[in-house]
Amino acid sequence: MSDSLLSTPNTPTEHSSLTEWLDYMQQIHVSAIDMGLSRVLPVAEALGVVQSAKDDAYVFTVAGTNGKGSTTAVIAQMCQAAGYKTALYQSPHLSVFNERVRIDGEMVSDKTLINAFNKVEAARLECDLTLSFFEMTTLAALLIFAEADCDVWVLEVGLGGRLDVVNIIDPDMAVITNIAIDHVDWLGDNVEDIGREKAGILRHGISVVYGASAMPVSVQQAIDTHQARCYQVGKDFSYHENDAGTWQYSNAAVTMQLPRPALSLTNTANALSAVLASPLKVDNTAIEQALQTVKLAGRFDYRETHHRHWLFDVAHNKQGVEFLLAQLLPLWQQHLAQQSTVSQNSATPPTIKMLFSMLGDKDIDKVVQRLTTAGLPISDWFIAEIDYPRAATTEQLQGILAKYINSDQIHTFARLPEATSAVIDSSQPQDLIVVCGSFHTIGETLAALRP
Question: Do 365 and 287 fall into the same domain?
Fold first, then answer.
């Protein structure tokens, strides 16, 4: 057994609540991230989840640097609208753990999760292995999908691809949204190494959707090795936005005029390409219905609450910020037009207030530099430390911001709930508050805004 593993009791542990289970699973393995499949595979086989997926379900697996959550959400919504019993696994969550595990759009219950955790724990102990929190919880999700006899599984890779626990399940359709520099400590510091890891989800003869115009050589080599059929944006399919809230999607077989979803068109087009390339029967009615109803908290998520306009986005790297800005700039123009009608008597023009925090192992400098040079009227930045072990300190955030903006624009707080209250008190009803930098930033802010 690896030196990195903790010894654990050889008798099953019983916990009465979901919170107790989640706390316990955080403690049974030394490393929060411990990549590799050698420990998790025996437990998965003991649970029967690998065989169940192979025999009974059509599996979409989605990897990539950005856009995985939106892509999986759209795929699942389309399959569900077409009448398939659809399982969706995503991570991380924003507010409650149950968000990660959904069947036909509904979060599974605490009781369902606890039952699955009991079975995973028993199998783990039987195999005399320790598993990380992510491995334990992912196995529980897969077991729930198998026991619910779902027709379609839509699985979001947590980190990388080749060594991620999701990769114990052979996909029928793979999606790689894009390749950019992120998680360098685990995946490498260049797109070729990162691409090689993400292309590890491919299997022989399957189809793969690649959602970016530039493809690393390592990804092309993996496609060739596996003799996979590749559908790449700009080559095999394309899309563009029309006026009046519609967009056009085209591939070699069809051209479709579709309603504009609330999520990124880039990710939506990738998801649609995957569904159309599958053998599933998903007609235009189901596609249109899905696009009109799909939503995902924290992904260009516009809300009005506490008499303020808010935009939440989990962008946490440079490419994610580019996605955010591409949608934020037109939204800001629309917001200005609306406020000019609503607030004609106001002497103060609308501005953007930024509520921001990041994890310390991210490239904070590049994210801040891009946000501060995008031409947006950001008048003030409200920063605080995320309540998480890997959080960047407030001092670290302040030091980076001070390189690009005046110090009087930076307002520091110990924790995000304090910063949330401050940005409300310091803003006007006509302003737009943008919250970004991390899943944790969004989650803690939403929790602070809850009644």
Answer: no
